[in-house]
Amino acid sequence: MKWREMAVYLYLLQLFNSNEVDRYDLIYTLNLFASRKTVRRIIRRLRKLGLLKEYNDKYRLLSLKEFLEHMILPYMASRLKRRLRNLDPHASVQVQNSKLVIQCNRECLNYVNRYLKLIPSLHPHIFLQEYEP
Questions:
Q1: pLDDT value, residue 44
Q2: What pTM value is reported for the model?
Q3: pLDDT tens profile 49-92
Q4: Element holding 100 (H helix, E strand)
Q5: In order of start, what are the domains of the chain with their CATH numbers?
Q6: Residue 85: is it exposed, middle or buried by C-beta count within 10 angstroms (0-12/13-18/19+)?
Q7: What whole-number distance in Å separates Cα of residue 42 and Cα of residue 48?
Q8: Given phi > 0 = left and psi -120 to 50 = alpha, else beta, which region is 98?
Q9: pLDDT value of residue 45
């Protein structure tokens, strides 16, 4: 994501507060900052990233929390999967409903449980599932 898209997203979030916005209101609002062609590119990029959802001729912005979950949880899942790969080469970590789901063998689960005991606030966000190799 480029700085331009980030700045436009934050500006629109402050201006419209995650409510539905008409396509033409969005274009005319952003025409203050860039040409019409650039505005359409920015809107297309925000839609591709999933930060703008389109319904007919209206758009809805993701909230800041949804944005962070959308951008950060896949990164966290990939890092966790790389970390657990040493214990279990078949371990998988997926993002489902804003939660991390870990599937691995018993040794790997014991390793993760050790950390979950130290940080109890992680329990609602991480689900452990054991598989049989």
A1: 92
A2: 0.61
A3: 888 888 888 898 888 788 777 778 888 889 888 888 888 888 88
A4: strand 99-104
A5: 3-62 (1.10.10.10), 72-130 (3.30.70)
A6: middle
A7: 10
A8: left
A9: 92
Calculate mean pLDDT across residues 14-24: 84
How far apart CA 88 and CA 26 sit, in angstroms, is: 49
Alpha-carbon 21 to chain mean position = 22
Rounded to an integer, what distance in angstroms lies between the CA atom of residue 5 and that of residue 109? Answer: 40
Considering only CA atoms, which of 21, 42, 20 is closest in space to residue 33?
42
Asked if the model's pLDDT at residue 129 lies above 80, the reply is no
Are 126 and 100 spatial neighbours (Cβ–Cβ below 8 Å)?
A: yes
DSSP 8-state assignment for residue 128:
E
Q: Alpha helix (H) ranges present in 17-124?
A: 23-30, 36-49, 64-84, 106-118
- The pLDDT, as a whole number, for residue 87 is 84
Answer for the pair 58, 22: CB distance below 8 angstroms, yes or no. yes
Calpha distance 58→3 (Å, rounded): 24
Measured CA to CA, the distance from residue 120 to residue 16 in angstroms comes to 36
